[in-house]
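HUMAN: Can I see a protein plus its fold?

ASSISTANT:
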Amino acid sequence: MIPLPSLHTVRLLQGAVEMTLRCTSNYLFACYQ
């Protein structure tokens, strides 16, 4: 059975992953400059 808040949790996780990737890419970009 899939719980109801699963979609909301997935969206929150996607947002967190996107933010982490963005911060990491910005950090690496600043490091390599």
